[in-house]
Amino acid sequence: MDTIYSDTHTADTMDTIQSNNYNIYFEDSLGQIPRFIEQGKYSRFFILTDENTSKYCLPLLQAKLNTDNFDLIEINAGEESKDIDFCIGVWKMLIDFGADRQSLLINLGGGVISDLGGFAASTFKRGIDFIHVPTTLLSQVDASVGGKTGIDIDSIKNIIGTFTQPKAVFIAYEFLKTLPARQILSGTAEMLKHGLICDADYWQLLKESDLANPTAELVYKSVAIKNKVVLEDPHEKNIRKSLNFGHTIGHAVETYSLINDTDSLSHGEAIAIGMICESYLSYKKAGLSAEELKEITEVLTGLYPRYDLKAASTVTLLEYMLKDKKNQNGKINCTLLTRIGEFNIDNICTDEELLEGLSYYANL
Predict the structure, then answer these.
(1) Whole-number Cα distances in Å, 176 to 47, 132, 141, 148, 182
(2) Most buried pick, 253, 295, 297, 302, via CB within 10 A?
(3) Whole-Å CA distances, 248 to 89, 260, 274
(4) Stretch 204-212: mean pLDDT
(5) What is the mean pLDDT of residues 343-360?
(6) Which residues of 64-81 are buried (b: 16+ CB within 10 A; e: fewer)?
(7) What is the pTM of this model?
(8) How far, CA to CA in Å, does 297 sit from each of 137, 207, 276, 283?
(9) Domain containing 256 — which CATH number?
């Protein structure tokens, strides 16, 4: 049984958080970027966006930069852009724009931009500096923190990537005002996960909060929790695996939906399904009580729309799980809960157990 006691610092001031040799800025974060660029003495800088962040978020950043002396690289929005072809496109743009090893890439966007931009920068000319300016709730509390970069291949999420830390992360709460409600709830799933694995009091606080409009303090708290985990285990050898709770089944469901549904599930919607299924496995295998299973199920089904798993191919879902990068010796590996706020890593789950977890959700 593992526990992580999260940062007890109050979120009242939302101080700068120190991570693995970089800072995560909160107060006037966008206003601090020009000084960061100046102090870094970069030869030039580039901004990576998608069409949504170019329209809604880039003007907010440009107002703080006080310069138009940068080159813009824009990709299509959506998970479909997080593949090798778009990554090659970013590399080619950097070459065309004359980027050198003293250049800086600013990743302005959600999780796709953070993952793809971080991977492109970490491999271009064997690595150039990059910073994250996350614009979605999901990227603020999850993708931008911890140094994971990645792209998908054949819809297998993040199967190619590196552990490369950004030079800084700048979290601007004002970006959340540009998001539709569905994107807010997508990020909320990762916040709920932080409470479930690490902090029962935080889980309770989230339950009592308006999660359609999470406060800046809640965002800060989630970032502090995730940062504490990755500081202790930056390369996911031990307790960082706790952050995978809900993701073994959740990623498989997300991939299935992306391929088969016209209106595919968001990341958070799929992870909510995964957390319900893996909470059931926690009840069967790791000691989670029936009462806490019921509580988790009711909270998550109350927030996220139901998905028809009965119509999904269980054979295909198991195939996706077998390709998951977290597996060991060809066996499917899950992080499970022993109770709300505590976790147990490296639980090998059989096909029969995983199907039982899927069936639990499907028959709710």
Answers:
(1) 19, 15, 12, 22, 12
(2) 253
(3) 30, 19, 7
(4) 97
(5) 96
(6) ebeeeebebbebebebeb
(7) 0.92
(8) 22, 12, 6, 12
(9) 1.20.1090.10
Do residue 69 and residue 212 come from a single domain? no
Q: What's the pLDDT score for residue 286?
A: 97
Helices within 233-345 (DSSP H only): 247-260, 267-285, 290-303, 314-322
Last residue of a domain, one of 178, 193, 215: 178
Distance CA 335, CA 246 (A): 8
Asked, for residue 3, whether it belongs to a domain, the answer is: no
Q: Count the neighbouring beta carbons within 10 Å of the beta carbon of residue 362.
A: 18
Catalytic positions are: 126, 148, 190, 228, 236, 240, 244, 247, 251, 267
Counting other chains too, the contacts that 86-92 makes at CB distance below 8 Å and 24 or more residues apart are 86/116, 86/151, 87/116, 87/119, 87/120, 87/151, 90/48, 90/116, 90/117, 90/120, 91/120, 91/123, 91/124
The residue segments making up the domain with residue 342 are 181-362
Q: Which amino acid is at 194?
A: H
